[in-house]
């Protein structure tokens, strides 16, 4: 009897999950090889795909019930190489990245693994919001690529162990404060072969980087819009304040390219 009861409970859970159909990072693709979520991604229950709500929610870091670094293997990656985060709305590897009504941006950030995500340790390596030319959001790109999001590890960061956090931010309920949904997951990586010439700046905390009333967090995708203000500080290697830099510095920056 007890077994039966458990089974029907499970069936109910599965129904709820597919009805909501959110997302998680299920796999990684590195050098053409698919690496299952169990290895290098901070753990979450198999069928888990629910969002984090609230910009000050501690689960915003990695959406993992086990924040022990030893819970997860560390993936060796070359600085400057590209790894692919693969989002899926359920456990099927062929399921969508995310329900297409979950319009919104995505971000990828890194932090020194030893900090375990705490404090002002994070820096963005990728952000994509809304492109007015194509009228596509980042989640449209992810869905067009069957859940895959390519991320390039900066070539010039110091070698070492990092948490890499990929996130979809869904805005379909974000017309009022608190409606925004976060879908982060964290990968443990060991970067080698980098030039180590540039220490990441613009470090920020998670939670902390987003505030409930930010224009990027309260945004109505059901009303007309022509642009979307991406949240948080600039991406590593890109200046957010080009205009305020001196001519000399701009010339120097150009030479670095
Ligand atoms: Cu959802």
From TrEMBL:
Residues 244-257 have a biased composition (Basic residues). Residues 236-257 are annotated as: Disordered. GO terms for biological process: cellulose catabolic process. Gene3D superfamilies: 2.70.50.70. GO terms for molecular function: cellulase activity; cellulose binding. It holds the Pfam family AA9. Residues 1-21 form the signal peptide. Keywords: Carbohydrate metabolism, Cellulose degradation, Disulfide bond, Polysaccharide degradation, Secreted, Signal. This is AA9 family lytic polysaccharide monooxygenase.
């Amino acid at each position: 009897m007890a077994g039966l009861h458990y089974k029907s409970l499970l069936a109910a859970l599965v129904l709820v999950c597919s009805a909501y159909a959110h997302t998680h990072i299920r796999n990684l693709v590195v050098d053409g090889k698919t690496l299952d979520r169990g290895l290098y991604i901070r753990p979450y229950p198999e069928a888990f795909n629910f969002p984090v709500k609230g910009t000050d929610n501690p689960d915003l870091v990695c959406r993992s019930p086990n924040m022990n670094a030893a819970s997860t293997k560390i993936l060796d990656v070359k600085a400057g190489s590209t790894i692919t985060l693969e989002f899926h709305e359920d456990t099927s590897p062929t399921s969508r990245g995310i329900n297409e009504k979950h319009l919104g941006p995505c971000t990828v950030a890194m932090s020194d693994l030893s900090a375990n995500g705490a404090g002002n340790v994070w820096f963005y390596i990728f952000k994509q919001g809304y492109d007015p030319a194509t009228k596509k959001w980042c989640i449209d790109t992810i869905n067009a690529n069957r859940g895959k999001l390519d991320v390039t590890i900066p070539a010039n960061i110091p070698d070492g162990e990092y948490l890499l956090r990929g996130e979809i931010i869904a805005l379909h309920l974000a017309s009022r404060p608190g409606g925004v949904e976060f879908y982060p997951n964290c990968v443990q990586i060991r970067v080698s072969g980098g030039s180590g010439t540039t220490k990441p700046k613009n470090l920020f905390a998670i939670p902390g980087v987003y505030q409930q009333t930010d224009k990027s967090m309260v945004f109505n995708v059901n009303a007309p819009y022509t642009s979307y203000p991406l949240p948080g500080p600039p991406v590593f290697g890109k200046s957010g304040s080009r205009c305020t830099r001196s001519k000399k510095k701009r010339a120097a920056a150009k030479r670095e390219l």
